[in-house]
Specification:
This protein is an alpha+beta fold and about 180 residues long. It is about 50% helix and about 20% strand. The chain contains 7 helices and 5 strands. It has helices spanning about 1-20, 35-45, 60-85, 120, 140-145, 150, 170-180, and strands at about 25-30, 90-95, 105-110, 130-135, 155-160. It has a 5-stranded antiparallel sheet. It starts with a helix and ends with a helix.
């Protein structure tokens, strides 16, 4: 449990840094409807190796498979936001498991220069319900709220932009390294 708390604290510090250095930050939650969860479970089952069924997996394995399929939809969500706004955004997503075993996502979306509107983010989630609100830059509660789910269980999944929460100097070194190898 100490490692999980440390993991959550690290991501919380990174999120706080992103909130302070972004022009604005959106906090959001994405959930899927029951019918879409069913479809995601079917896709997760189809991705398994032959001879295994989704129902035979442990609850933790099922959650990981569900997060993989849900994550593909979250990626599509971010692509739609970027395409429709042209805005460079950075993000942190944390997948939380309901008592039912179904995932939902808490996220922070950081604007770099171009504003992203409520409509831009709320209309791009196609699988169920979304909720978004702007974060006060001086507030650290939201960063901890998103990161705390990483301390609840080791199965909680996190996804973030490349170099999330790192200093600008480190991000520029990463970009230079990618240019050298591209």
């Amino acid at each position: 449990i100490v490692c999980l708390k440390h993991r959550a604290r690290l991501w919380s510090f990174r999120a706080q840094h992103e909130i302070r250095t972004s022009s604005r930050t959106w906090f959001g939650t994405l959930t899927a409807s029951a019918s879409n969860h069913y479809l995601l479970d079917l896709r997760a089952g189809l991705s398994l190796k032959e001879g295994r069924t989704f129902e035979e997996l442990s609850p933790t394995e099922q959650f990981r498979c569900r997060c993989t399929e849900f994550g593909k939809e979250v990626t599509k969500f971010f692509k739609r936001v970027r395409k429709n706004t042209g805005a460079p955004i950075r993000y942190l997503t944390v997948f939380e498991r309901h008592k039912s075993g179904l995932p939902h996502v808490h996220m922070l979306i950081h604007e770099a220069s171009q504003p992203v509107t409520y409509r831009d983010v709320s209309n791009q989630w196609k699988l169920g319900h979304s909720h978004f609100k702007l974060v006060d830059r001086s507030e650290t509660k939201t960063a901890w709220y998103v990161a705390k789910y990483l301390s609840k269980e080791s199965a909680a999944r996190v996804r973030a932009s490349l170099g999330y929460g790192e200093t600008m100097e480190r991000n520029s070194r990463i970009a230079e390294a990618y240019e050298l190898f591209s």
